[in-house]
Write a structure and sequence with these properties.
The protein is mainly β. The protein is built from one helix and 30 strands. The two termini are 37 Å apart.
Amino acid sequence: MSDRPEADRPSPLPPRADPPAEAGRRFQTVLFGTYARGDFQGLYAAELDRLAGRLAPARRLADLPNPGFIAVAADGRRLVVVGRGPVGSPTADGRIAALRIAPDVQSADLLNELPTRGQGPCHVALHPRGRFAAVAHYAGGSVEIFALDDDGKIDRPTDFVQHHGAGVDPERQTSPHVHSAQFDPAGRHLLTADLGLDQVTVYPFDARRGAVGPPVTPPGAVPPGQGPRHAAFHPDGSTLFVINEMGATVTVFRYEPETGALERGPTVDALPADYQGPRRAAEILVHPAGRFLYCSHRGEDTVATLALDPAGGPPRRLGAAPTGGAWPRSFDLDADGQWIVAANQNGGNAAVLRIEPETGLAVPTGCTIDVPDPVCVRLLPQTAPRPS
């Protein structure tokens, strides 16, 4: 359903030169990190048919407790996963694990795992060269860097940064809460979104030592009480879009790749003006064509579509698609930006949304599959064989 009149909608997306079926890339593997317990705990996978927009039933790749967030290496077979608590424990103590997916994509082997120094790891990202992983700790308000060896194993921690301070909200911002850590496209800087401090901090990154330098000043501050959660770069690398969990808003920053400097632009509401429900925005991604961005909203239980202005104006909400379940914590786009796979944590399922080429809007397809307590979605960058 669109919130914009027909005449005010963006022009169509450019045609795709290589339809999935003709390019031999019809099937793409989708990974699901979960908070499932007992007999259902683990890392799951399913095949997305990119011609039909359908998901095959999910299968368990690895029996791994609380594989909450996943980072995928460029080869599409090595993974880094963060989880909370030792085996069998729900505590906030954390760990980082390395896995390798089998050639038949039917299982994943645990290479090794190490404890994290910070509590409550909630996000992990790989450096573009694949030799370091950055882990964000929500409960501990910190970020930690780990080195990876040539086989993809976690070698050792190389740096640790503790955030300090508080925000304006007396319940959720009494201390720092680093909700994500990611590298810029060139790998020169590490960016952290801190929900507790209402800021995005940029650190110069030394890719030889796996260490950060003093933070770039001033940090990228969002409006007070908004609670930044995740961020996504525009394909041109010069604009950063931040989804604010507590405000359900998007803040736009101009990004200087050489220095890491952030210049704040507009903050726009990503929910309808008359929305009265809980504000718990979660994920944000930019379409590969750079014309649209998408963000998920727990409470409204939708993925919203926002149009990006090539002239630099604020993003405009076009509409939102229900995700076919409750609490859509995470989603990902397929290789051509044709489909969205959304994970409904409280619904215990995953759904496929279609991106309309004429408008960029995400719309439901009606396709859902069961996945126990899914909290992260990652599509592998390489095609996978269709399961037998």
